[in-house]
């Protein structure tokens, strides 16, 4: 089974050379996984370059869209890389039958990519069950510690739970709220899967529509280094095997310190 380790990171690199350099630095610092966002495209070539340009760090696709990336391309990339280095993160099924579409995709890669090497972008209970039954675990985003505890109950003790965090390195509450409202939350709050999960976590339709202070504060880790590190440890204590921090926007001096603070 994929062993994600306690701390992972995301970082935006414009080209493969820059991504390799970042991955090599994180590898030396002791990060377990570099999660490379797929966006709306296919970043398998960049993932391949990063795996080949490093020696130990796991590289995860976070997340390849099954609506856009052919299953044959995923299978070929996985087969071409050393075992244990590429974690195949899948999601992005946004049609009328997302659960069925993701299940069909998993059927197509079953012979090439073992369940232990793949992880699913999962929020709702049925998607978490699919992640439990047909992958090594789940990779949710924009969730509370209570959600993590409930997701752990669904997944059980074995499957991995990697949680992508929303982190702002500021102790100014007004600045934090402005930053978060100007980021991805506004777009994602309009997506049915995320909105439904916000409701499951106790947020109201008004919270979601207005990006209320309550919603922003509940989904964001913010403050000085010690405050942020303590909050990340709370997610670990709630049941997350790995917390994934977006390094863009965090002070560089935090990068090595987080490895020691989050265990």
Q: How would you portray this structure in words?
A:
Helix 1 packs across helix 2 (44-53). This protein has 263 residues and is of the alpha/beta class. The mean pLDDT is 95. It has 13 helices and eleven strands. Strands 1, 2, 3, 4, 5, 6, 7, 8 and 11 form a nine-stranded parallel β-sheet that branches. It has a two-stranded parallel ribbon with strand order 9-10. 40% of the residues are buried.
Structural class: alpha/beta
What share of residues is helical? 40-55%
Number of strands: 11
Helix-strand sequence: EHEHEEHEHEHEHEEHHHHHEHEH
Rg from alpha-carbon coordinates? 17 Å
**pLDDT below 50 for ≥5 consecutive residues: which ranges?**
none
For the largest beta-sheet, the strand count, sense and barrel status come to:
9 strands, parallel
Give the overall average pLDDT: 95
Strand content: 5-15%
Distance between the termini: 20 Å
Shape: globular
- Helices, by number, come to 13
Oligomerization state: single chain
Q: Can you summarize this structure?
A:
This protein is an alpha/beta fold and 263 residues long. It has helices at residues 16-29, 44-53, 71-79, 98-109, 125-134, 145-155, 173-181, 185-189, 192-200, 205-210, 213-218, 225-238, 254-261, and strands at 7-10, 33-36, 58-61, 64-65, 86-91, 118-120, 137-138, 160-164, 167-168, 221-222, 242-246. The chain contains 13 helices and 11 strands.
């Amino acid at each position: 089974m994929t062993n994600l380790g306690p701390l992972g990171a995301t970082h935006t690199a414009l080209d493969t050379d820059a991504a390799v350099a970042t991955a090599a630095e994180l590898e030396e610092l002791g990060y377990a996984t570099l999660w490379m966002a797929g966006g709306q495209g296919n970043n398998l070539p960049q993932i391949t370059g990063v795996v080949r340009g490093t020696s130990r760090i796991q590289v995860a696709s976070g997340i390849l869209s099954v609506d856009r990336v052919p299953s044959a391309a995923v299978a070929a990339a996985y087969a071409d890389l050393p075992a244990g280095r590429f974690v195949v993160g899948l999601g992005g099924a946004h049609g009328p039958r997302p659960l069925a579409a993701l299940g069909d995709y998993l059927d197509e890669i079953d012979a090439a990519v073992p369940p232990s090497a793949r992880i699913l972008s999962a929020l709702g209970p049925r998607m978490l069950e699919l992640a439990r039954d047909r992958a090594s675990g789940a990779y949710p985003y924009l969730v509370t510690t209570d959600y993590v505890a409930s997701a752990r109950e669904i997944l059980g003790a074995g499957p991995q739970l990697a949680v992508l965090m929303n982190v702002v390195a500021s102790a100014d509450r007004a600045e934090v709220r402005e930053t978060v409202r100007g980021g991805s939350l506004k777009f994602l709050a309009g997506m049915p899967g995320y909105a439904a999960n916000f409701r499951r976590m106790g947020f109201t339709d008004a919270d979601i529509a207005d990006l209320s202070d309550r919603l922003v504060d509940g989904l964001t880790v913010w403050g000085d280094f010690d405050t942020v590190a303590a909050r990340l440890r709370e997610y670990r204590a709630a049941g997350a095997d790995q917390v994934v921090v977006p390094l863009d926007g965090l002070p560089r001096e935090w990068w090595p310190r987080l490895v020691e603070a989050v265990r």
